[in-house]
Amino acid sequence: MRTSLRDAVALAAAVLAPFLMALALLPLRTSLTHTNLALLLVVVVVAVSALGNRFAGGLAALSAVAWFDFFHTEPYQSFHIQDRADVETALLLLLVGLAVSQLSARARVLSRAAVSDARHLERMHDLSRLVRSGGCSADELVERIRADLIEVLDLRGCRFVDGSPPAVGPLPRMGPDGSLRVEGWIWDFERQGWPDGETELWAVAHGRCQGVFVMTPVPGAVPPSLEARLVAVDLAGLAALALDGQKDLVQP
Question: What is the DSSP code (8-state) at residue 172?
Fold first, then answer.
């Protein structure tokens, strides 16, 4: 599974940011209560969680507790806590940090999903309008959809094979519900990711297969969401409609 640059930066910040904040607060150690110091460290956890993922947020919470203990509880420069109130503050810092990291990471996921859904909707709207207006040929539309499939499913490559599925071969196939079938079995896409090799996506309209998009995923890539797979199925359906209409026009 690939790690994005943003997540890598967040992991580094999860380790370093609480340490730097705890170090910067040393001059205020005698003037601020331990509760206020802990709250300031929670702010760092929130920032890391917003930048990265749940793991980064949880790591930041643990790091915040460790450096709070080391720099701001007696005995200083030690990971031992003597005062019961300091123990309670450290535990609360950990619990609040973990809770906030989960909420921040969830908010980030929802935000990304909303942006992704908006892009998918815009893409489908543009292509549907293009099909209705006849603004491009069926071959041009298929080429555009092929490129869109690479983007939507984060593929390494995709090609279109005109004609019936037997011309391609018995490859894993993405069904109309976004599921994946491998040799007749339903593939656990969310847990197993893409199967090895290529995967078919049939372009079907009015019960007839007009061709097959043969997709090549990136090895080890995070599997696309169900929503993205359903968009891919709809894109293939638009290609099939355009090809079906083109073939009807050339029939004698």
Answer: -
Residues 6+ apart with CB under 8 A from 144: 127, 136
| DSSP assigned state of 167 | G
* Helix 34-51, helix 54-72: angle, nearest 10: 160
pLDDT in tens, 8-61: 888 898 889 999 999 999 998 888 888 888 888 888 888 887 787 778 888 888
Distance CA 70, CA 78 (A): 5
Domains and CATH numbers, the chain: 5-110 (no CATH), 136-250 (3.30.450)
Helix (H, G, I), strand (E, B) or coil at 52: coil
Q: Name residues of the chain where pLDDT drops below 50.
A: 1-2, 167-168, 248-252
- Strands of 17-165 (E only): list them: 155-162
Q: pTM of the entire structure?
A: 0.54
